[in-house]
Each structure stands twice: as structure tokens, then as C-alpha cells.
Design a protein that fits this description.
mainly alpha; 5 helices; elongated
Length: 145
């Protein structure tokens, strides 16, 4: 009888004693959707917008307005100087503006509406308009979502 009681108690205690022991899928240092505020997301949206606008659009605009010239013997921006921009060259900027900047700005607008922070809401709306203007100027018709 003792042989049955000890394993039975071990199984019962092992399966019911610590519920939080195996809860390893939540990182206490990473914010979840519930506790993310607009103040946490806004710098990321601004940085992604500045990165896209200051990188691809600046270089492309500089070559198209003939402010930049291609140096003989180098090939790093040869496609820009020949006005043959490939789709792969510009797809990263389009993806960053649509999937990062616009999504983050929409999250900011939702969070600002919930907390009635209208200054942040208007700042996010202004950046959203600017992002759509940059997308339409660079790519033509852009889906408005």
C-alpha cells in the first residue's frame, strides 16, 4: 500500500503545485499590447519615417534633380545615375513606410484616442499625411487604408 501512496502523492503534487513555474512564454521586460502607450511607439514611427525619407528618397531625388553626379569608376549608385531603378531597390522603402510607419501611426492614433491625448493624435495624423504624400510622390497611386 505504501508503494502506491508515495508515487500517487508525487504525481498529484508535481502536477498541481506550481502553476506559474511553466509560464515561460511571457517576457516581463517586453511590453504587451495591453500596456503599450503612444509615447513608446511614436519614436519608432518617427525613426522609420526619417530613415526611409532620408535614405532612398534623398538619394533618388538628388540624382533625378541632378544635384548628384556619378563618379567615373564607381558602381555603387550606377542604377540611380542611369535612371534605371529596379523594383528591389525601392521595395524596402515602400515596405518600411507601409508596414512599419503607417501601422505604428495607426496604433498611436488609437492609443491617443483612448487616452484623449489630442496633441499626440494630431501629430500622428500629420505624420500619416506626410507619409502618404511621400508614397504617392514616389510610387504613384497608393492604397489608402
Amino acid at each position: 500500500m505504501k508503494k502506491l501512496i508515495i508515487p500517487f502523492l508525487a504525481i498529484v503534487l508535481g502536477t498541481t503545485s506550481c502553476e506559474s513555474y511553466l509560464d515561460i512564454n511571457q517576457d516581463p521586460n517586453a511590453p504587451s499590447e495591453d500596456n503599450v502607450t503612444a509615447d513608446l511607439v511614436f519614436p519608432a514611427a518617427e525613426m522609420n519615417l526619417a530613415s526611409s525619407y532620408g535614405n532612398f528618397f534623398r538619394i533618388l531625388g538628388g540624382y533625378y534633380s541632378q544635384q548628384y553626379a556619378h563618379s567615373f569608376g564607381t558602381s555603387n549608385y550606377l542604377d540611380y545615375s542611369q535612371f534605371t531603378i529596379s523594383a528591389t531597390r525601392s521595395s524596402g522603402t515602400y515596405t518600411q513606410l507601409t508596414s512599419r510607419v503607417l501601422k505604428n501611426l495607426e496604433i498611436i492614433r488609437e492609443k491617443a484616442t483612448e487616452s484623449e491625448d489630442w496633441g499626440t493624435y494630431l501629430a500622428a495624423t500629420t505624420l500619416r499625411v506626410f507619409t502618404y504624400q511621400a508614397l504617392v510622390d514616389a510610387y504613384g497611386e497608393t492604397p489608402y487604408t
